[in-house]
User: Fold these one by one.
Assistant:
Number 1:
Amino acid sequence: MLTDVVNFVVDTVGSLGYIGIFLMMFLESSFFPFPSEVVMIPAGYLAYKGEMNIYIAIFSGILGSLMGALFNYFLAIKLGRSFLVKYGRYFFIKEETIVKMEEFFKSHGHISTFSGRLIPAVRQYISFPAGLAKMNIFVFSIYTTLGAAIWVIILTLLGYYLGDNELLIKEYLRYIIIGILILLAVLGFWYYKKIKKSS
């Protein structure tokens, strides 16, 4: 099943090119539950085969992620929390998720936007509390772009160097996610100590 999905994405990206990467990463970064792994890894593989420019592919992925995040950001500002709670369930967004994201954002400040982009099942929703809190859009864009860039580059390089070896990609990706979570935990601890010391 996964192989069929990956083949479909490879065909789609191959036919639509960089626009296809942008559109799919836009969807992945907004409220639509679309995994970035099945977009950027095939894009990296196509770059390895010489059918794409790896730098333009990465740029398209980052730009799509940023635009999708901004879509959620403005959606939260325009519609407000009550609307998201009422209708979010139709887009797989539970009220508990919104509440948790708000609490996470308030507790950890702007750094939550950066770290949230690197956490599975969180990166799609981290823009909502930022929008509800009306975070400075320039600061939001910078943190979002940095977080998205790291993730997009990792996935693209996996596809470039490992090609279509699905089992090896899964194994490496698992280790990478664990490593990222550990680094974020260290970063969070450092940030907490810094805030505690300054207060």
Number 2:
Amino acid sequence: MSRTDPDAGYMYRDQKPEGFFWLAHRTVDAKHNFIVDVHVTPGNVSDSTVYLNRLDHVLERFHFPLEAVALDAGYFTTGIAKALVERGIFGVIARRRFGGKKGMFRKTRYTYLPEEDAYLCPARQRLTYQTTDRHYK
């Protein structure tokens, strides 16, 4: 907790400064190129957490038709996708690219071998099923 601003939130994100901050969540009408809403939260509040409430606020406040929204990868959640479909809004959301651990292969680089019920890793090693619950047979 910050001693100088106890309501600020501690933010720790990749490629962002670390510390106590506030965030301004902006909603932009890209068709007309102006900001229609700004909502301020402590720095530890995720953009995706407040998005749907802000979207509903803008729709109720301005009553303009909304056909589509474009969102960055931080909004790529099941809840947001479902809510957009329920509201009849076409969502264009950037795909998250989760980074792997250094020196490890990404899941997409493995090949499933159905005839063996095994996977082949990029180093040409076969990986067979061992256990799901960590209790070996």
Number 3:
Amino acid sequence: MRSALLSHVKRVVVKIGSGVISNAAGLETERIAALSADVCHLLDRGLEVVMVSSGAVAAGKGLLGIVGRPQTIPQKQAAAAIGQTRIIRGYRETFQDHNYNVAQVLLTRDDLSNRRRYLNARNTVMTLLEYGVTPIVNENDTVVVEEIRFGDNDNLSALVTNLVEADLLIILSDVDGLFDKDPTSHPDAELIPVVERITPAIEALGGKSRGVLGTGGMGTKLKAAKKAALSGVGTLIVNGRSKHILARIFDGEDVGTYVLPAQSKLTAKKHWIAFSKKPRGKLLIDEGGQAAVVKHGKSLLPSGICGVDGGFERGDAVRLCDRDGHEFARGVISYSLTEVLQIMGKQCAEIEKILGYKYRDEVVCRDDLVLTQDEEEEVD
């Protein structure tokens, strides 16, 4: 069954967790060499691979004398600055032994939030693939601050999957997959081989744990799988410390947990609006405006806006909320905060008279809008 599900795969994103290539003492160079060799074998099969690799902080903290998780952002940034070079060198050496090359791609959330920079990043990665070079992506921890963090590399891997229009996301973890109960405290826990849809009950199984070395637990992996599913891509969560796990996957072995793609996927642009572009403010919408957007698939007009919260400029993403502040949609706004304050509650015909100009009738056009209250399109 698994081989049939993967028969269409030509381009794959492989996310490598910190717990896969490092331990409490630091980087495990032999693990990097083994995984690099496995990826090269996938390249030999004609697959295109984009790697999203964690582990920079774990690789560098030892040289700074840091024991355990770094406690401050400057400590983390300093450790990452040291560790990132060690990781890339480890990958590069093994790839070159197999006559392949790698390239380092460091991103922040701002790089994917801005549409032009998003497309620039996409063009760079796609060009590398065209030349047979394997991109190795990581968050740019040396400059990132909390406001522009992806949060974890599981989330980044899902965004990269959409960025490069991959056919499969493989998340290499230090556990075998998703279990029906916590396997550390329940010896009878059973692996769940296939998840048709990530429901609240499935998310509850993931918990909120995180490892000593990384920032994510099973919960973040399920959220990443959910984002990938909404771009029409399945996700495999497997144990990256298992020998030759990547080859076994493409040999058809039923390993790990496979999360099926959603039956109704978002377009690439709407996926970018929902997950990559960080919202800057809220629009409070009355009952009529909400019904027009949610029930009738219409754009948001100024007459439906009854309040605003936060600041934004034209072209920013905003949250569309009911009067009580509960989000039901997200979209790219056509007017700035100053302009919205003047035209909200007004008819479209009045916009030009009030402002002296008009960009368009719609404050948020339907083509630039994603519903988030629908369970199939829920945004975290």
Number 4:
Amino acid sequence: MNADLHQPEARPLPSDDTAPDGARSAGASRPAHAPNWRTVTAMIVLIPAVVVAIAAMFVSLAVDPEPHQAPIGLVAPPPAAQAIESALAERAGDDAFAVERLADADDARAAIERRDLVGAITVGPGGVTVLTAEAGSPVLAQVVAGVGSGIGTARGIPVAVESVVPTPETDSRGTGFAAGLLPLLIAGMAVGGAAAVALRGRVAMQVTVAVLGPLVAGFGFAAVWSWLGVIDGGVGVVGLAAAAMIAAIAWFTVGAGTLFGTAGVGLSALVMILISNPLSGLASSPYLLPSPWGAIGQWLPPGAGGTLLRSAAYFPEASVAGPVAVLLGWMAVGAALLALGVLRGRRGQTGVV
């Protein structure tokens, strides 16, 4: 007789497919991480704590803004220059201005046009002339004019205020330009978020949206600003600057969204809107933010983008190498995150049997 007939029949190993229907459905419906009271406690404590911390940051940046190491020029004979520097420190504080002595008023005007200085005080035979740049920051220009005028008046010297780089007459307070910067930030988030979520897994489409979307939005914003009189011409240059700001935000968003999913888009919103936006000084000036927040804000896309846009719109002589490098760096970070997300997705596909 064949020995194989006496071998016991092999039984299949238990699996999810052979489990009773009730057990299988119960296991499928059970969450991997069931909520517990520790989670509830963490939500009650951590979420309000984070919101309160963000609110404290917003309020601290907005309450009683004062200049911090704002570069200001001084043209005066040595004895008068020393007295004016002491008066500046006495009136505005030791940390308010970084004073740079210049040879004459023309040098001061040229430095303001390059955005090396936020203003200047010149002393001549006719009295004191305060040079300002409302286009750079109307709020900071008022501070410079007020301090300079106060010094001249206290010494009984005639005071005149000259705007070296004024805002356009149709936007004399600069409110139109400042109001348009937040929509630029939102445009970057919208373009990047849409590409990350709606086009997930289609890299060529994501890249196309991240490249062309900011260009269309940037030139659109520049055209609107020109039409409303916020800028005097220069639509092409301002459009490119706006597109660079939008692209930096969009690339980081699509990269984070591709790598981390919806949580990555949320992370980008946290970084760009809740942190970067108040640190950018878009509505006033980075020099009016407490140290070192103003400097930190210039390393983030909204701050660097706002500086680039003001230079492109009103200061053609200003160097833009710094903000352009920052924005390109954020685009590169976004591209790297996108590449990592694509590699992670491909590895996940090859690992499936």
